[in-house]
Amino acid sequence: MSKEIILDRLWALEDSPYRDFTANLIPTVEKSRIIGVRTPAMRALAKELVKHYPTEAMSFLEELPHYYYEENNLHGFIIEQLKDFDKAMQYTERFLPYIDNWATCDTFAPKIFSKYPEETLKHIKQWITSKETYTVRYGIGLLLSNYLDALFKEEYLTWVAKITSDEYYINMMIAWYFATALTKQYEATIPYIESKTLSPFVQNKSIQKARESRRISEDTKKYLLQFKL
Fold this sequence. Notes:
Blueprint: H1 3-12, H2 16-25, H3 39-52, H4 54-62, H5 69-81, H6 85-95, H7 102-107, H8 112-115, H9 117-127, H10 133-146, H11 154-161, H12 168-184, H13 186-194, H14 200-211, H15 218-225
Helix pairs in contact: 3-4, 3-5, 5-6, 9-10, 10-12, 12-13, 12-14
């Protein structure tokens, strides 16, 4: 199964209304580069490729850059299927610089990473200092999804707080991180809000998103308001 055949498989899953919907959500990707394939269908295709056409699936991972948005998403979903940590990390490292939108960035996260938290953290620490927008965003996203519960350490808050950027998609993820941290690790996180050391955009968005959460009490939501900039 060649890359052309894989692309044909994606086109066979085309959903034009969904294409229009997707294009509105990811303005950094030209509409001509969007086929319009729903995420469950792409994940099912990735699973099929890895199970029945492993050689072709791995060849697909070598063929960067891709043109279509869905090719990039499929790429990430194939990486998700890999059971070997070193291989999954190798292909993730290679793929990150080619990510050009928030949706691809936020959609894939190999489960194998959660089984090797210390090893993954070493890469996250590097990613959040990258000059690539979506590499930084990806690192923050993994800290949000994998390290705000049992694996949480207060130093991770400092890592994220120290990130400075003019990039909207980095700052939005920082805000999501702190908003989520307020719901899960409130005592450790609230000093960052009270000190007002985050950038005005991140500070205000963190408070906004936290106040929209059902996991935060009404009293806490009122308390947070006084720290808006």
